[in-house]
Protein 1
Amino acid sequence: MTVKRLLRNPLGLVGSVALLLIVLFGLCSSFLAPHDPNEARLELTNAPPMTSGYLLGGDQSGRDVLSRLMHATLGTLTASSVMLLVALVLGVTSGLAAGYFGGRLDTVASWVSNTVMALPGLVLLIALYSVIGPSTLTSMAVFGVLIAPSYHRLVRTLVLGVRRELYVDAAKVAGLTDARIIFRHVLRAVRAPVVVQSSFVLSAGIAIQAGLEFLGLGDPTAPSWGGMLQDAFNNIYVARLNVLWPALLITATTLCLVLVGNALRDVLQTAHTQARPLHPKAVARLRADHRLSAGSIESEAAVRSIASDSVSTAASGSAVSDSVSTDVLLSVRDLVIGYPTTDARLKTVVHGVSLELRRGEVLGLVGESGSGKSQTAFSVLGILPRQAVVLGGAVTFDGLDLRDGKVLREVRGKRIGYVPQEPMSNLDPSFTVGAQLSHGLRAVKDISRAQARRELTELLGRVGIKDPRRTFDAYPHQISGGMAQRVLIAGAVAAEPDLIIADEPTTALDVTVQAEVLDLIRALQQERGMAVLLVTHNFGVVADICDRVSVMRQGAVVETNDTESLFHAPREAYTRTLLDSMLDGSVVREPWTRSA
Ligand SMILES: Nc1ncnc2c1ncn2[C@@H]1O[C@H](COP(=O)(O)OP(=O)(O)OP(=O)(O)O)[C@@H](O)[C@H]1O
């Protein structure tokens, strides 16, 4: 797959094909080279190219240039591969171990790596010549040792990131040995950057090797690019062309490796992030294609046809009434969102979603994982990932068109607040809670620092924080997850917005704190008359605080109903199935028994 995508990249294709030809040129030397590379014939001395039987002529010692070039290519590639192998074995192994196990091992490995890195590589190789003698293979193996710290550092840093991933913890809990976790999970995460780095290291290795040979520090009995370059250089006034061939091969090989390295980086990066943001022209083309294939995306019929998949939708109440009532605060109509795939197509993940949220109302957006709840909420807030393409639809807030970036910036944070899912990762660890809240509030409200502090401390008390002053001056790591969520709720309501969008606000919290946070949202909503769009996959949360519910499935709304009717008499079979599966085993307060 990666190879396929590499070959689809024009630079990757050119680089790979040229590199393959160079490798074949070297590999075929033993049976395709027309002559013995060291056989000298007097009549061939400085013979020009195309001399009969000698395509590239002879050098100053009467040896066949083509045969020497072929053997030199094999020698160079072999020595560089040895260098790469040594660097990979030492650097990657030590980086994996240091990053994964940490502690004393990491300290020692880092110390050794830093010391090796501080050595002047080229000078050391020249000095070592007197000890190891004229062996290019040994010199390059030593160079491999010198370059290993670059792999060590890269891999260690990557492993430090991966080590904290939940799937690594899960593998540990599942009883996998450290060796299996490293080879199965950690190595997978680091291999792409290592492959990319290897192409650059190989390119540098070839240049260094040629440099050493040019200085006369290679094996004089074996043909080499650098050695051939030196010979030809000494003889440049007699046979100028002989400089060209090794120089061409050195340049072409290093250039191809850099091209392949760059292309690989693009390919692997794209694979990692699924797809990069599209060029505006490509977006326009995809929008046009989408319209053609889906008919008018404004039409209910089109929405239904996209979303159908055994679910009867709009007729059952998923669609918004056509008569837009005046107390509608937020209206999402026929929203279609897609993501570019790696083969430049578009995968739609939201298929014509329509919602209406009245002033002071709590609307739950519920559905299984991946049904498009967050994408819908993000499109209202204008925080969809960069790659996302909004293919159609309208989002209006109090009559204002939120597709207009200027309008969106004016209302976001001021009239629309946002409570995110992960409280801790949404607070910057380098600033105090108070600094972050004040910064947000003062960006939308023209008040002094002191006034902001007063208002926010009062608000922190209101959201149930016991010691608001201390919390105001605390750093995020000094407060608990539940407190952090309260802080974010305070931040969202501080500017007294008309609408709060809460994306799974209780998922990251433990059960008792969840109930408190839900009660807080409901209390604040009633106190301030705000509307709330609550994204959740939990019917318990819906039962607790929602007035109405929209159920989503596979990017489409399948049913919108008031909470009580949805629980007692869901219109759609899918809603019933979802209710059964989600209520099974979970404690849900019946909507009619919740505290107001
Ligand atoms: N950056 C992205 N690139 C490609 N596809 C994406 C991206 N972000 C989301 N999607 C896809 O969009 C679909 C809807 O995702 P969304 O996050 O809205 O689901 P959700 O209903 O909120 O699920 P969850 O409850 O698990 O968060 C999913 O299929 C997801 O794979």
Protein 2
Amino acid sequence: ATDYFSSITGLEQLLQTEQILMRDLSTHLSKSKARLQQLESELSAIELEHELAGKGMENYLTNPVNVYRLMKRLRTDWTELEARVQQMSSRMPFSIAQHHHTLSFPSQEDVDGAALALVRLQSTYKLDVAQVAAGILNGIKYGTAMSWQDCFVLGQQLFEMEDYNNTKVWLRESMERLRQRQPHHILPEAGTLNSMELVAKTLFQMGDFDTAYELSQRVLEFDPKRIRNWHLGDKAAQPTPTRVDEDDDWAENVWGGHLPKHSDPYSLTEEFAHYEKVCRGEVGPSAAQERPLRCRYARGHNTFRLLAPFKIEEHSLDPYVVTYHDMLSVEKIVELKQMAVPRMQRSTVNPLPGGQLKKSAFRVSKNAWLAYNTHPTMLGMLQDLHDASGLDMTYCEQLQVANYGVGGHYEPHWDFFRDESHYPAEEGNRIATAIFYLSDVEQGGATAFPFLNFAVKPQLGNVLFWYNLHRSSDMDYRTKHAGCPVLKGSKWIGNVWIHEATQTFARPCDVYRDHEISLDYEAIK
Ligand SMILES: O=C(O)CCC(=O)C(=O)O
Ligand SMILES: [Fe+2]
């Protein structure tokens, strides 16, 4: 199985893998140490003999026992020693390959995914690269710092993924770290210098002269002889370009705006930039509400709830988006996760009609589908949703439990299906969504509504509820929403999608058609 990067459960396996490798290496080292000590003591014994001999060579060599032992040492003992030393390095009990069938190892896709996640977080939350490299997220130091090699490898990888803007940023950070490094005299491995040269050359050919120059300077500092290797070819004969500012759009200068991108065009739109702002909490809801938003108690559709009322926090009245506070206890959440974990798989996105479900950088998480009738906790969730909203729960998809690891996200989308072939006609489209938050998230991971200008922070036990459709049954395009990237922590949610067919009395049509209000938003898509 691959996709270790998309959720916390996969990553835990990788940590276990490393644990076992650590144990192996440690055993190996202590065995080696014991052998080394053995060799050392044998060497000391020989040294002692030589000390004795040194005190009076003639006297020493006239003793037949000493002569015999010298002969024997040179004839057999040293050969034996040689064999043992050789054995130590060749017959290593330490081997990674022996574990390949039993332990989890990340694939290249995983490493790429983790690199993308890091870069996504840095750009979504406008993090300072130097800070990220230092292990600091939004002012809080969590992890250990990245070495200059870490940054360099990340830069190289971004380069291979054709994300040239970020390549530049990380290579520069790598050079900065290299400059600050103590002590200065340790020479990087020849392989590292080779790849630095290669990257410098390619950057040069692509026109990023500044970074190429910087990189070359570093290589030369380490190994001045290398200048012999450098023949940058015809490109060197080209006229020197005018220097561009750090923040200038380098890609545009070099490629006339046609730079290949690993990311989809949507992430370059203004709408996407706005969505990222909403994730960062930089925009507040517009004041165009007909009445102010409130937090209130309600008994919903169950008289019993007079005693235990719902705690409703309104986020928007039209479209209707609310949080029900404290709907699920920690104990029940633990049960749900236990049921879900063994079934978790990488999330897919809905294909175009006729297409196949696809893994996508658009949605990085893992999920599992659970049937409500397999556990009373889940039936209770449906009952609570019915009591709160009055909706009929006959046609719900199975509960979808999802987990986002660090960098996991779900880009803006609608939950309703725009193609009728995607849902059974007798069930109707997804009229409403309820997200049960099954965890808190330390930083990031909010559910964002870019058209409505607000984001809801996950809070364990709360339910976020909204209608995806107008009362007229038409799709409400204003409900576009997203799971912002998780910056720190692990995000768990349970999605309930309620379908429309049985809601005739629970949510009757209005006397006028109300969908036209969101046609504008359809145009934006
Ligand atoms: O993760 C979130 O906050 C949103 C999830 C979502 O929109 C979905 O799964 O359809
Ligand atoms: Fe959604």
